């Protein structure tokens, strides 16, 4: 797994970082978020096995130095990326998130796991089954047909497909968290 996160913190205003800092420190006085606290923080409760696997891979993607905890900088970097990052930065991060086993490629099982988990967490009804959706993604963007999505196939394919891009962006909609943060913490 290459450490090529292009995350910059430049575009966060001082006021926003203060709000995020306050929120983080209120909910996590130790300054380090474990996976258990992470789930509490993001209001993830009663997760099914696959949703839990997804939340766990999201946590690992946030935990950039892989020490098993999310510290404040990682938290801000992640939020900043998810909320304001350029499409390319976001996709790079999604790729890391979706490549559950860190092999450098996304295979069909990994994609299916993610789709199923996202659907379970978001609880939204879908016309297309997760299996069909995964097949469609592979049909569209696995350009060399080897059954795995390489980084280039993923980046190129998603960016050239309005619908996939929108689906991906919605899959990690953190707006309710932002609302909680910006609404202020008592
Ligand atoms: Ca960490
Ligand atoms: Ca993989
Ligand atoms: Ca491929």
TrEMBL record:
PROSITE patterns, A to Z: EF_HAND_1, EF_HAND_2
GO molecular function: calcium ion binding; calcium sensitive guanylate cyclase activator activity
Coiled coil stretches, renumbered: none
Gene Ontology cellular component annotations, sorted alphabetically: cone photoreceptor outer segment; photoreceptor inner segment
Organism domain of life: Eukaryota
Family matches, as SMART domains: EFh
Protein name: Guanylyl cyclase-activating protein 1
Gene name linked to the record: LOC115557807
């Amino acid at each position: 797994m290459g450490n090529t996160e292009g995350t910059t913190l430049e575009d966060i205003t001082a006021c926003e970082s203060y709000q995020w800092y306050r929120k983080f420190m209120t909910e996590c006085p130790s300054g380090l978020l474990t996976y258990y606290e992470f789930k509490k923080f993001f209001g993830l409760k009663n997760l099914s096995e696959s949703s839990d696997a997804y939340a766990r891979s999201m946590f690992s993607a946030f935990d950039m130095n892989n020490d098993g905890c999310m510290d404040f900088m990682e938290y801000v970097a992640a939020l900043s990326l998810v909320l304001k990052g350029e499409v390319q930065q976001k996709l790079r991060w999604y790729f890391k998130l979706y490549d559950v086993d860190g092999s450098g490629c996304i295979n069909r099982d990994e994609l299916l796991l993610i789709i199923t988990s996202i659907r379970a967490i978001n609880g939204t009804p879908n016309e297309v089954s997760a299996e069909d959706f995964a097949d469609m993604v592979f049909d569209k963007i696995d350009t060399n047909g080897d059954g795995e999505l390489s980084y280039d196939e993923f980046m190129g394919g998603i960016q050239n497909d309005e619908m996939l891009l929108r689906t991906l962006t919605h899959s990690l909609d953190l707006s309710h968290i932002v609302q909680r943060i910006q609404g202020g913490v008592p």
